[in-house]
Amino acid sequence: MVVGGRKAKDIGRLAQGFSLIAKEFAKRSPTLQSAKNGDFQALLKNAVVSATDLSGLTKGTLHSQSTHNIPSNPNNADSAANNPDSVVYFTHDEPPPPQRQPEQPLPTPENNAALSAVEVEVIGSSAQQQLEPQTQSQSPEPHPRAPPRRKPRERRVPSTPFSRALGFAGLGAGLAWGTLQESTKRLIYGTPLSSAGNQSVVSPFLSPQNAERLALALCRMRGAALKLGQMLSIQDESLVPAPILAALDIVRQGADVMPRAQLNQVLDAELGPGWSSKLTSFDYEPLASASIGQVHRAVTKDGMDVAIKIQYPGVADSISSDLENVKLLLDYTNLIPKGLYLESAMKVAKEELSRECNYELEAESQKRFRALLSDAQGFYVPLVVDDISRKRVLTTELVSGIPIDKVALLNQETRNYVGRKLLELTLKELFVFRFMQTDPNWSNFLYDEATNTINLIDFGAARDYPKTFVDDYLRMVVACANGDRYTVIEMSKRLGFLAGMESEVMLEAHVQAGFVVGLPFAKPGGYDFRTSNITQSISNLGATMLQHRLTPPPDEAYSLHRKLAGAFLACIKLGAVVPCRELLLEVYERHQFGDDGGETLSSGLP
User: Fold this and answer.
1) pTM
2) Around Cβ 463, how many Cβ atoms within 10 Å?
3) Which positions are catalytic?
4) H or E element that contains 174
5) What DSSP assignment string belongs to 247-268?
6) What does the alpha-carbon distance between residue 298 and residue 281 come to, in Å, rounded to a whole number?
7) Crossing angle of helices 534-548 and 555-574, rounded to 10°
């Protein structure tokens, strides 16, 4: 009876969630309003097209890839040389500059979108992303075989409130049908066993088939929905069940691709009908397709190779409604644990996505980073091409290099160098600039072996941090490094990680998590990330903190801990040996606390 009641409750909850989604779509849809006035032909056409496409009944046009591997990063492949059919050349009055010799195509990295909407305390070991199969003999250790990549399809991006609301309603209906199928299967064949041999307690909603439905729908919808799916895709099984994790790995491989006609509409609207007059060639095959837009290679009239990032139509205007609809699905399926404070995470995600959708703001952030790092050794920020950039289109200098997971195949000296530079940059961004690019996607850091330089790209997630927050955070990091329990707790209260009324169990788990994160900074000399078990230790403590936490983390922590966790995971992937304490000491000794500086912490850095 208990099992039957649980199944009925699962189906009832999902039906209620689907009902709310339908009401939301009806309330927001201008098309439905026009239908009330008699325009049923338009309503029927939009409904049939959107419902069949987004529910998976129609599959879209399979996007034909070129013979080379397309990297998830927009700056390291010569697609024009390998797939000339996708390249359009423009003729102008003056002869175009000579074309440069094609580079050798680079291997394809996985789309390592290490995004997270939770603090570093609950980042688990599965956040370490897999490499694709490698054939290089210099690989320092064997790598697991990556799962088959999903082939992207050409689909129009749902760009109206009606089409997007209908898409979520169709997804809800599909999930309800999948839940009914799984519940029926369990009634007939019994509940499947877990890996430990016990009955699985996973809801019938969380079946592999439903997980795949969810992931494929997110790839079709794109926008905020796909971004949230990417956030969920890097969590471990203590936060998100294994079937969901396995299917959401699909979303990390990239979104579906805009058809050429829709792409041209965006370019015409943003740059004007004469946008091609500024180029000598444009490659319609995207170098990358992500949650908010896709990136294409082009050559300007003066011969500069550029990357043009083009935003999907409608995604900026649908952030709020997308997140609300996704939240309805999550609320009524128990996908997210209560201790993650979904409301707070959604609020922060909405603010971050709004900034990321403003390419003019991203262009300013990139220029700011270029100025801040102009004298820094080992880093390069590419130029922004202003006259081919607008709010929904961003054009930048195309730079070369290999992402972090490919650097892991190089010699130990190079891996140590890159790991040190990444951690040095992270500390400098937070404690010196107080301005950080918070997206730790490994493909945003391209190592150029020829110049021993790390090329930095993608500044949509850049943000400032208040000085008071930075001062207290540095105090807490030092306390974590020195094992100072009292200061860790006091700074955590001041920063907002603790409410001050936590149980001793929660306090101990919180402090121990801080000490684990502080381990690389605890002792002088190189810290060997090859022997690190930081992510596993944090994962083990995460369940306790999720159960006993009384308050969500401060808003600043979501993006900050995503970046810090990404820096650690990069060093772990590289197997780097980094003098972490020395890097922290250098920052600490130069830091000016408050208005007049001169502070020395009770836990001091010897």
Assistant:
1) 0.72
2) 17
3) 439
4) helix 161-189
5) HHGGGGG---B--HHHHHHHHH
6) 5
7) 160
